[in-house]
Write a structure and sequence with these properties.
By secondary structure, the protein is of the alpha+beta class. It has 4 helices and 19 strands. It is flat and about 95 Å long. It starts with a helix and ends in an 8-residue tail after the last strand.
Length: 393
């Protein structure tokens, strides 16, 4: 009876201590939560700022009463414009920049801004890793909207959360249950031996718990991400070889590198520049079993950076998506903007669609591209006409 009472007392003391500890932690967290939030740092203009996936440098802001960078304004409207240099700090092309800037002290009836590339007024293009581009954020405002004489903008930095949190689990029997279990088994003559056994078992449980926590943490940090588990299945090949994927065949015949790209858009001739080099890839495509479409092309640099096909050319019949049929080869172009240091050792990734879980992906090595000692292509043309008939070399 006395042993049972002592076990119950120990259980009450343990539960009481746990409750007190929980209340203390909760109160401490509440106290921290009640503290006033820190004011955001005040940064001078024209200063590079690392904001999550972007490095931004605000250049200048102004109010425009006319169409700016292709963004039309309704009669009686004006526009607040912020121009900023932006660099993609991630490993692949991205356009998640809509919420980076927000003007302070101005009522925005439209919410998100229109965003244009200042080079050629392309709206909301993807920005490529390591390539700095000047972007114009345009917020349409009512003509009588008040704009402060000194403009200030808030910058939102996206913080990537951990993929999965480590959860606690009850792995061993409670200490009070262990007390009762041992009290029922031991006799009066071997009380000391029973206590030693209890201490050994408690110590063993603690060792098992520590090992389990360490193993769980190791599994958590080394667990492949879902995107990796469902990634496309690569089919490797080389230039001038036919690579046979699940639903299509592709042969890479030619790559032209240029500093400027000449093209015709809606009957108007344009000369497009880039922060790197234009890479115009000519392929021959065909379907294997049934008619299909080939919509995705990605330039993968030697360090793993991925550059999606450019979005600055608009719709063209010789650009993705390419509709192909069995037994009928079709010429198809893929056009990229890439830095000169991402050419030697690069690969071309071609797939039916960008997000194709467990589908086949042609992965073509570009080792046949001739490069100089600095890694740049041996042949770079100053200007390439995309609409001219391309010869094979």
């Amino acid at each position: 009876m006395f042993k049972t009472a002592r076990s119950r007392l120990q259980t009450w003391i343990t539960a009481g201590a746990g409750t007190i500890a929980a209340l203390f932690v909760a109160g401490l967290m509440g106290a921290f939560g009640a503290l006033p939030a820190h004011a955001p740092p005040q940064l001078p203009p024209d200063t590079p700022i690392d904001a999550g996936r972007w490095r931004v440098r605000p250049v200048h802001a102004y109010v425009s009463h006319a169409k700016v960078y292709g963004v039309p304004l309704k009669p009686g409207q004006k526009a607040l414009v912020l121009e900023a240099d932006m660099t993609n700090r991630t490993a692949q092309s991205d356009k998640a920049y809509f919420d980076v800037f927000k003007p302070d002290g101005i009522d925005l009836p439209g919410g998100q801004p229109m965003i244009a590339l200042t080079r050629d007024a392309t709206l909301t293009p993807e920005l490529h890793p390591g390539m700095t581009e000047r972007m114009a954020y345009v917020w349409p405002l009512a003509g009588d909207a008040a704009v402060p004489p000194t403009l200030a903008f808030g910058i939102t930095a996206e913080i990537q959360a951990a993929r999965q949190s480590l959860r606690h689990a009850r792995l061993v029997q409670s200490l009070a249950s262990r007390h009762r279990h041992l009290a029922g088994r031991r006799c009066a003559g071997d009380r000391d031996a029973g206590e030693r056994i209890m201490r050994i078992r408690v110590l063993g449980n603690l060792v098992i718990l520590a090992a389990t926590v360490a193993l769980s943490y190791g599994m958590q940090v080394s667990k492949p991400h879902y995107a990796d588990l469902t990634a496309p299945i690569p089919v490797d090949g080389a230039m001038h070889d036919t690579v046979r994927a699940r639903s299509f065949d592709v042969r890479l015949d030619k790559i032209v590198f240029a500093r400027k790209l000449k093209t015709n858009q809606f009957g108007q001739e344009k000369l497009l520049t880039t922060g790197g080099l234009w890479a115009v890839v000519t392929t021959n495509l065909a379907a294997t079993g049934s008619s299909t479409a080939i919509a995705d092309g990605t330039w993968q640099g030697p360090t793993g950076l991925r550059y999606h096909q450019t979005e600055r050319l608009g719709y063209r019949q010789d650009m993705p998506p390419h509709g192909v049929d069995p037994g009928l080869e079709k010429r198809g172009l893929f056009v990229f903007e890439v830095p000169s240091d991402q050419i030697r050792g690069a690969r071309l990734l071609i797939a039916s669609r960008r997000f194709g879980p467990l589908d086949a992906q042609a992965r073509i090595s570009l080792d046949a591209v001739q490069t100089g000692a600095d890694g740049q292509p041996a042949d770079i043309v100053p200007e390439f006409d995309l609409d001219a008939q391309q010869g094979g070399t």
